[in-house]
């Protein structure tokens, strides 16, 4: 009707490379969330003292390797660790910020 | 004067943009608003008296303020800033002459008559808000936790719980390190929340009203400050000095960085209009 000038789409920057990166960041965020939940759970159980030393060592090593692997994946995809988060509005962020 | 302005305007090309509503006192009735620019593309900013109230208005091109145009404007931060600044400039000028109820950005009426009718219909509420904000100003307060909490060094060893077993391999060391990080984070969070609560509680003592807004969390730009309180207070003019002193004192006592901005036209305290 009254010529809106530019099409509304022209304002959105559709950069497929950026979208790919965003998707990778989203996937890694979810993986990191699970990793952190497992870590918290492990720490809680260690604190309760119901794990043997070997179990503690094994869980710790596994979580450490996962952490390293996450960092490698982030490096590979050009995602910074601080990008791995979601802003949930009034609820704060998905992952705690250091 | 308003009458002529109204007649000159072609009925379907101009609409009445209302910036603020004031009491129709001598000060506001004789206020000089001609120097104000107002909205881009609009006619001169003028006063529109109606009964005991006076609105600060401007005739703007209707085609420039359709829903469609406004929606596309909303997606452009620079445009929004331009319009918001223009709006704010007029509101601030109106508030310089006495209490003024700022209306939301892009409050439009079909013509002056409609605007006047809205003023009359809502007169009670406008008067109530005018009474509340008279001789009051809004002050924004932001509290930031400094990036480096001073007690960072010790908590790694806090709450041992038999974990310092001799069989401390890499896995155990890792878990302990993570536990330290978690504990420090929890401590910082608790400290930040308690600082935010005590700052808010003390500031509410000097304020007539207050509102808590969303915090921004970690500050972009990376200096690591964390935003822990975002609040705004309606403070009587004669207590604004007290507020400043209190904020400085709170900053020294809590070690947090407290940012005080204002005085503002009380945008946050007229919501019920």
- Overall, the morphology of chain B is elongated
Order of helices and strands of chain A: HH
Q: Which sequence of SSEs, written as H and E, runs from N to C of chain B? A: HEHEEHHEEHHEHEEEHE
The helical percent of chain B reads 40-55%
Number of alpha- plus pi-helical segments of chain B: 8
Kindly provide the radius of gyration of chain B, computed on alpha-carbon positions and rounded to a whole number of angstroms.
26 Å
Note the gap between the termini of chain A: 51 Å
- What is the percentage of strand-forming residues of chain B? 15-25%
The CATH first-level class of the largest domain in chain B comes to Alpha Beta
Query: Got a strand count of chain B?
Result: 10
* Major sheet description of chain A: none
N-end to C-end Cα span of chain B: 28 Å
If you average the pLDDT of chain B, what whole number results? 82
Uncertain residue segments of chain B: 1-11, 149-167
Detailed description of the structure:
The complex is a heterodimer of chains A (98) and B (273). Chain A has 98 residues and is mainly alpha-helical. Chain A has a domain at 19-76. Chain A contains 2 helices and no strands. In chain A, α1 runs antiparallel to α2 (53-76). The radius of gyration of chain A is 20 Å and the shape is elongated. The N and C termini of chain A lie far apart (51 Å). Residues 1-10 of chain A have low confidence and may be disordered. Chain B has 273 residues and is of the alpha+beta class. Chain B folds into 2 domains: 2-133; 136-269, Alpha-Beta Plaits. Chain B has 8 helices and 10 strands. In chain B, the strands form 2 sheets. In chain B, strands 1, 2, 3, 4 and 5 form a 5-stranded antiparallel beta sheet that branches. In chain B, strands 6, 7, 8, 9 and 10 form a 5-stranded antiparallel beta sheet that branches. In chain B, α7 runs antiparallel to α8. The longest helix of chain B has 37 residues, at 170-206. Mean pLDDT of chain B is 82; it is low at 1-11 and 149-167. The interface between A and B is medium-sized, with 33 and 30 residues.
């Amino acid at each position: 009707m009254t010529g809106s000038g530019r099409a509304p789409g022209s304002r959105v920057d559709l950069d497929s490379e950026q979208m790919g990166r965003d998707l990778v960041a989203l996937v890694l965020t979810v993986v990191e969330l699970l990793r952190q939940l497992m870590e918290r759970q492990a720490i809680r159980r260690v604190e309760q003292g119901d794990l043997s030393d070997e179990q503690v060592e094994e869980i710790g090593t596994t979580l450490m390797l996962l952490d390293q692997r996450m960092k490698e994946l982030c490096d590979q995809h050009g995602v910074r660790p601080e990008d791995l988060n979601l802003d949930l509005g009034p609820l704060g962020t998905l992952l705690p910020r250091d | 004067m308003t009458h002529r302005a109204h007649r000159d305007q072609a009925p379907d090309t101009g609409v009445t943009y209302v910036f603020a509503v004031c009491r129709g006192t001598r000060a506001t009735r004789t206020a000089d608003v001609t120097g104000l620019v107002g909205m881009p593309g609009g006619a001169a900013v003028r006063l529109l008296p109606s009964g005991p109230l006076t609105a600060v208005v401007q005739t703007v091109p209707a085609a420039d303020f359709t829903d469609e145009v406004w929606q596309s404007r909303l997606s452009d931060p620079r445009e929004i800033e331009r319009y918001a600044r223009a709006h704010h400039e007029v509101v601030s000028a109106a508030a310089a002459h006495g209490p003024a109820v700022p209306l939301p950005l892009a409050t439009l009426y079909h013509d002056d008559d409609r605007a006047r009718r809205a003023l009359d219909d809502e007169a009670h509420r406008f008067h109530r808000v005018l009474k509340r904000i008279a001789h009051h100003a809004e002050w924004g307060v932001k509290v930031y936790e400094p990036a480096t909490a001073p007690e960072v060094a010790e908590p790694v060893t806090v709450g041992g719980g038999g974990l310092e077993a001799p069989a401390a391999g890499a896995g155990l060391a890792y878990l302990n390190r993570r536990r330290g990080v978690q504990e420090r984070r929890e401590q910082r969070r608790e400290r930040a929340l308690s600082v935010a609560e005590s700052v808010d509680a003390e500031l509410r003592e000097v304020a007539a009203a207050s509102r808590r807004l969303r915090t921004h969390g970690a500050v972009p730009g990376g200096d690591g400050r964390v935003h822990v309180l975002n609040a705004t207070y309606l403070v009587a003019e004669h207590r604004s000095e007290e507020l400043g002193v209190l904020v400085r004192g709170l900053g020294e006592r809590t070690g947090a960085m407290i940012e005080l901005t204002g005085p503002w036209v009380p945008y946050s305290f007229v919501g019920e209009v």
